[in-house]
From TrEMBL:
Binding of NAD(+), residues: 13, 19-20, 95, 165, 194-198
NCBIfam families in UniProt: PRK07370.1
Taxonomic superkingdom: Bacteria
InterPro entries, per the entry: Enoyl-ACP_Rdtase_NADH (IPR014358), NAD(P)-bd_dom_sf (IPR036291), SDR_fam (IPR002347)
Single annotated GO MF: enoyl-[acyl-carrier-protein] reductase (NADH) activity
The protein's name in its UniProt record: Enoyl-[acyl-carrier-protein] reductase [NADH]
Gene, per the UniProt record: fabI
Similarity-based family: Belongs to the short-chain dehydrogenases/reductases (SDR) family. FabI subfamily.
Length: 258
């Protein structure tokens, strides 16, 4: 029943084969979507090479550099989407960053620059991408972002990223309210802790995973593919009545009090 054939999906945030964005891209492709991929460019081109080789089995129609702090690259990305596809059906936002020093220690010691950087890349980027994507979603569409429980509750060694995720989750609600009349749905997935390149910056990530495995109702954490399945559902017509929501894909951990 889950069929994305004929849908055009732009996926941001793939860094390697552990990325949640990679799990999402795989499941969108498996459901029949035509995939476009963006990557974070670097001077030596290492990220481009790594992501290109990883995503080759998906035969992406678009493969584009996009640093969300570079306005020119954001404009070029969506100009390419318009030229290649003419429209966009699905936008996957898997972008987050905070300086390592601002993830540890006392939260009150967060630097102004670190605070601004985390909010810009991790939260405002969804607003900017939505701004660029909405005019291309001429037949309606689905925007999906990735968040974490640390945006709703205090999590050790998460600090400023928790603030960024809280802002991101409110972005989901405000964008859903704005874009609903255009038949554009906006939702977030709050995934349980998964060992990824991004999560490696969070101190004690393995301890967090082990804690979830002990406490969550399913007695385990989740995989990138499981998050990808949820994203494919939210991108599909099966979720046509769902918008402005944060869907927890965390083996049930979020419901536990202790």
């Amino acid at each position: 029943m889950l069929d994305l054939t004929g849908k055009h999906a732009l996926v941001t945030g793939i860094a390697n084969n552990r990325s949640i964005a990679w799990g999402i891209a795989q499941q969108l492709h498996a459901a029949g979507a035509d995939i476009g991929v963006t990557y974070l460019p670097d001077q030596r081109g290492r990220m481009e090479k790594k992501v290109r080789e990883l995503t080759e089995p998906l035969s992406p129609s678009l493969f584009l550099p996009c640093n969300v702090q570079d306005e020119g690259q954001v404009r070029a990305t969506f100009a390419a989407v318009q030229e290649k596809w003419g429209r966009l059906d699905v936008l996957i936002h898997c972008l987050a960053f905070a300086k390592r020093d601002d993830l540890t220690g006392d939260f009150s010691e967060t630097s102004r620059d670190g605070f601004q950087t985390a909010l810009d890349i991790s939260a405002y980027s969804l607003v900017r991408l939505a701004q660029a994507a909405k005019s291309l979603m001429t037949e309606g569409g689905s925007m999906i972002t990735l968040t974490y429980l640390g945006g709703a509750r205090v999590v050790p060694n998460y600090n400023v990223m928790g603030i960024a995720k809280a802002a991101l989750e409110m972005n989901v609600r405000y964008l859903a309210a704005e874009l609903g009349p255009q038949k554009i749905r906006v939702n977030g997935i709050s995934a349980g802790p998964i060992r990824t390149l991004a999560s490696s910056a969070v101190g004690g990530i393995l301890d967090m995973i082990h804690h979830v495995e002990e406490v969550a109702p399913l007695r385990r954490t989740v995989t990138q593919v499981e998050v990808g399945n949820a994203a494919a559902f939210l991108a599909s017509d099966l979720a046509s009545g769902i918008t402005g929501q944060i869907l927890y894909v965390d083996a049930g951990y979020e419901i536990m009090g202790m």
